[in-house]
Write a structure and sequence with these properties.
Elements: H1 19-59, H2 64-71, H3 75-95
């Protein structure tokens, strides 16, 4: 038989939730959401850096296959990342004229 588990946000007494429990649950949620938001920002920055590194490596003449093997992606995905970055750069040039 599995014992019943009570979660703090539900309260420990007769199913009622106190104000302090609600406040603490809200604080926990804020901390978790802040951590998730930071992780999303870091991921975005890492993806930008990866794109820059791939585009730079291609400009140096390193093959798509070699790059794909180095970062563990398929050659078609590396090609797509590099091509999308080139397209973004071309758009920026056009709009900055």
């Amino acid at each position: 038989m599995v014992p019943e588990v009570q979660f703090p946000e539900r309260g420990w007494h007769d199913g009622r939730v106190t104000i302090s429990e609600r406040i603490e649950a809200a604080r926990r949620e804020r901390r978790v959401l802040t951590r998730v938001s930071r992780a999303a920002w870091r991921l975005e920055q890492a993806e930008r850096e990866r794109t820059w590194a791939l585009v730079s490596a291609r400009a140096e003449g390193i093959s798509i296959r070699t790059l794909a093997a180095a970062i563990g992606l398929s050659p078609s995905r590396v090609h797509q990342i590099v091509a999308d970055a080139d397209l973004d750069a071309a758009r920026e040039e056009h709009w900055n004229e």
